[in-house]
Amino acid sequence: MFYPDRASEAPLTDAQLRALAGTAGQELTYTCVPPGSGTRVGIDRDEDGYLDRDELDAGSDPTNPASVPQDIDGDGVINSLDCAPNDPTTYPGAPQLCDGIDNTCSGVVPPDELDLDGDGYVACTGWNDVTGTHPSILGGGDCDDTRPTIHPGAVETCNGIDDNCNGQVDEGVAVPAATPYMLVGKQGTTVYMAWNPVANATGYDVVRGLLSTLHSSGGNFTTSTIACVQDDTSQSQFTICDTPPAGDGSWYLARPNNCGGKGTYDSLAASQVAPRDSQIAASAAACP
After folding, report:
1. What is the CATH number of the domain that holds 221?
2. How many Å apart are CA 195 and CA 286, to the nearest integer?
3. What domain count does the chain have?
């Protein structure tokens, strides 16, 4: 092997060296030395540990062991070979940090240190903007840097995804707090029940009962509930197919649900005398 006098250049085999010598103007003269005689002085003639061409590049004297290349940041790599001579964390062979900097002098910042989806977070962990040049990045640990709604601190929603990157899915989602306001409509011969969508709801349960039973029981929803007509439907309306007995009528109640749990059938109005949820839950016809 033939070794260069620059640390950044790779050694050459005899064949590689002869191939270079075949180019006009690059003729070579071989100097033969006994095998095993050690490193030639032409590589580091003053034997100060720095190769001659590196010393010339750095402005030091390759013939004077007291004259050595400078390493301003003290990272062990001389200035001429260091892509960031004033940064001790950045040099060839350095460990890559999560700081938005090419610490290894490879010429490329790793993609996990770039905010690819623009949500303010990068994928690497332990983010530290030491240079202060990335004010838009709030931190690391983005578990999906292709979707701006997913990042540490994001609001968890019922979508089967770990939105806040804490290793859990759909956790801590608040149960829908409102109650749907229900309306009956008719289109042609079709009668339908509809209600306003409730924030944070992913589904709705709808129960039905007879007004006569509700009245005769003194408002007891356990005895008057006769059917779960919609079980966690994602729709906000359905066609009414049930016909009450002659002279009677039906009542309907809906409650919103999500991955956090079941909402309430209660009207949430001060005029409501007693809670409905426990009574409806005690009915054999209640929605699951």
Report:
1. 2.60.40.10
2. 19
3. 2
Backbone angles phi, psi at 227, to 5 degrees: -160, 145
Nearest to 112 by CA among 143, 136, 88: 143
Per-residue pLDDT tens for 68-99?
Answer: 888 989 999 988 889 999 999 999 999 999 99
Distance (Å, whole) CA 149 – CA 120: 11
Count CB atoms within 10 A of the CB of residue 143.
18
Residue holding tokens 């042609």?
188
In the sheet that 182-187 helps form, which strands lie side by side, from edge to edge? Answer: 182-187, 190-195, 237-239
- The dihedral sign for the CA sequence 237, 240, 241, 242: positive
User: Which residue, among 135, 131, 110, has the nearest Cα to 120 in the 3D structure?
Assistant: 135
User: How far, in Å, CA of 115 to CA of 127, rounded?
Assistant: 12
CB of 124 closer than 8 Å to CB of 109 = no
Boundary of a domain, candidates 23, 38, 69? 69
- The answer to whether residue 12 is domain-embedded is yes
> Which of helix, strand or coil describes residue 183?
strand
Three-state secondary-structure class, residue 111: helix
Distance from C-alpha of 210 to C-alpha of 184, rounded to nearest angstrom? 16
Please give the span between the terminal C-alpha atoms of the chain, in angstroms, as a whole number.
79
Residue among 135, 109, 136, 132 nearest 120 (CA): 136
Cα–Cα dist 128/169, whole Å: 27
pTM greater than 0.70: no
The residue segments making up the domain with residue 214 are 182-281
| Over residues 238-262, mean pLDDT | 95
- Please answer whether residues 50 and 69 qualify as being in contact, where contact means their C-beta atoms are separated by less than 8 angstroms: yes
Tokens of 137: 């990045």
